[in-house]
Each structure stands twice: as C-alpha cells, then as structure tokens.
Amino acid sequence: MVEPRRNGKGSNIVGPRNPDRERQNPDTIVSPPTDWGTVLHMKWSWADSHMRLEDGGWAREVTVRELPMSRDFGATNMRLDEGAVRDLHWHNDSEWAYILQGRVRITGIDYGAQYFEEDVEKGDLWFFPQGVPHSLQGLEGGCEFLLMFDDGEASEYKAFQLTDWLAHTPRDVLRKNFRVPESTLEHLPAREKFIFRSLLTKRSIQEETQAGVPTTRRRLTHKLLAQEPIKMPGGEIRIADSSNFPITNISAAHVIIKPGALREMHWHPYADEWSMFLTGMAKVTIFTVQATRTYNFVAGDVMIVPRNCGHYIENIGDEPIEMLEIFKAPKFEEFSLNQWLAVSPPGLVQVPLNVGDEFIKALDKGHTPIRVQ
C-alpha cells in the first residue's frame, strides 16, 4: 500500500485506513513536492452520493450540499428501467443532459405551447430551458443519464411535479379546471410519484403525436457522439456549444485521452469546469492563486476546476480516459499555455523562465489540446 513518505519525510499510517480509497488516490497520500498552499476540495465521487430508490429506477445528486465548489451546477445521475417514467415536471433552472447508456423518450411542450417528442440514445444531449414542462421514459433496456442544472443549489428533487401539484390541490378546483365530474378524480395519487413503472409504448413518435398539435421548431437535442471528432495522436475531442446546438446556454466537451497522453496545460476564462470521468484513471494538478493541489480521478468521479485556474489531465492508467467537461457558458473557450508562449516574443519567455532556444523551438503555435511525448 502507498505510505505517506517522500525524500525522508513523513511516516507510515498505523491507525485506521481505507486501502481501496488510498489506492485510488496515490497523489493525495504522497503529494508531488510541487503542491503547496491550501485549496478548497475540488473532487467528489458519485459512490458517496445518497441513492434515492424508486419503483423503476433511482437518482443521486451532486450539488453545493455535497461539493461546495460546485457553484455553477447541481447535477443528478438517474436510471430508468425499461418503461419507467420520470413524472411530468418542470424546473426553475435550465436542464442539460447527456445520455450515458440506453435510450429514452422525451416529451413536453416548448414555449408557445409547441409540442415535442423524440427518442434519444447514448451520447446524445438534450436541453430544456427553464420552465419547459417535460417527461422522460426509459425505452428498450432502460437508460441512465446525467442531468445538469445551471445553479449549484438546484435539485431534481425540487422540481415542480404534476402528481405533487394535483395531490395538494382541492378536488373542487381540479373539477372546475378540467371540467370533469369529481368521480373521475377518485384515484389520484395522494403524493408525488417521482419515478414510476409504466407500459412501454409500442407506438412510433408519429403515432403518438396528436393531429393538429403544433410542434416546436427549435432543436432541443443534439447528437454529440455522432459529431466528427477533433483527432490528434493523444486522443480526440468533440465540442457542443451554442455554435452547433443553438438553444443551449451550457457548453461541453467529450474528451478521450489515450494512455500516457496529456490534456495539455490550459485554463477556461468564462466559467468553472465541471467534469465527470466515465472511464480511466487520471492525475490532475490544479493551479490556483498561490496554491496548487494534485488529485487522482477514476470512473464515477466529479472534478471542479474554478474558472481561469490552470490545470492539466494526465492519463496514468492502461485504458483511455473518457470524460465530460461542462461549463455554464454558451461558448466553449480555453487558453493553451503552449500556444500562448509560442506566439509571445521569445525574450519575454526566455528571461523569466531561464530557458534557451531549444525550449522556444519546441513550442507549438497551433492548438493541440491532447499531447503525447
């Protein structure tokens, strides 16, 4: 097991310990000598989030409650079995989603009472502006997805839900509103149904859509993994933002980093980076003002990098890293340290860094987000 020793300093751990967690976090147990200062914690594991178990699925969250640095986003990871439905609902905040596995049918109405219904699958995105009512149903084999709300205190559990509203509205008001006899309301649920089992429809979307109902002209979904990636020797990147998904106010990158490769030293100017690791093992050092901290990440971990804080992501495992980088900004932007130094006057770089011409010649004026030695 890793022991906290380096260059004659430190000692072994003789008290209680968690070997599995320590093996996942070697650079926390023995931090690089370049780490210094104090930073707020930038890491959370979905395995530490409370599971809300429902009839037909589950949900768990990462908000500022779990990770105080998650100021821009409240996140929910949700699973729906085949046929299971997330109750009809809407939110105070915009909802951005990435489908991790399976297929899901989304339905609702857009602004102007324009209907939408679509089947989406692994690697697809959806975006619902605030207040847009919608529902979700797992299709064949069920589905799992990541939901992002553009407020760190936002929660899927705080949604405005159809069943909750009707359960807490007087029956005579419901009778007047829907113009039905009170007998039709006898079996309304007494409380919210967050996730519930239902029959999987065998009808196509065309058959489901009612005649004469106007459909939205806005595109609420985007096929991120169907995009042609930006390829380089160390991996590949796909970006979805307002330039190719116009409705969204959230930008994202789907990143693949090959073993041994490095997501180069860079920073993002507009917003904090909220990242989720889907596969692989990473080493990340975050450079803040007068402090640096190194972390290790594995599949199921969440990382926060505050805006303008320099960082890199190194693949230290034997399999590719697959990850999502998500920003509360309509446009994806980043600054490359390599590119900045390459286009700067050489003297401005050589004098403070005390480097020679060999270093200057190695700099890359292009932009290579993922690098190999």
What attributes does this structure have?
373 residues, mainly beta, Jelly Rolls, seven-stranded antiparallel beta sheet, 13% helix, elongated, manganese
State the gist of this model.
The chain is mainly beta.
| Structural class by helix and strand composition | mainly beta
Percentage of residues in helical conformation = 10-25%
Backbone shape: elongated
Number of strands: 26
User: How many distinct helices?
Assistant: 8
CATH homology superfamily of the largest domain:
Jelly Rolls
User: What is the radius of gyration?
Assistant: 24 Å
Beta fraction: 35-45%
| Distance separating the two termini | 29 Å
Named at the architecture level, the CATH assignment of the largest domain is: Sandwich
Write structural notes for this entry.
- It comes from Fomitopsis schrenkii.
- The chain has about 375 residues and is mainly β.
- The protein folds into 2 domains: about 50-220, Jelly Rolls, CATH 2.60.120; about 225-370, Jelly Rolls, CATH 2.60.120.10.
- Helix content is about 15%, strand content about 40%.
- It contains 8 helices and 26 strands.
- The chain has helices spanning about 20-25, 25-30, 160-165, 170-180, 205-210, 335-345, 345-355, 355-360; strands at about 5, 10, 45, 50-55, 55-60, 75-80, 85-90, 95-110, 115-120, 125-130, 135-150, 160, 195, 220-225, 230, 235-240, 250-255, 260-265, 275-280, 280-290, 290-300, 300-305, 310-315, 320-325, 335, 370.
- The strands form 4 sheets. Strands 4, 5, 6, 7, 8, 9, 10, 11, 12, 13 and 14 form an 11-stranded antiparallel sheet that branches. A 7-stranded antiparallel sheet has the order 3-22-19-24-17-16-15, with no helix packed on it. Strands 18, 20, 21, 23, 25 and 26 form a 6-stranded antiparallel sheet that branches.
- A hairpin with a 2-residue loop joins strand 15 and strand 16 (about 235-240).
- The longest helix is centred in the middle third of the chain and has 8 residues, at about 170-180.
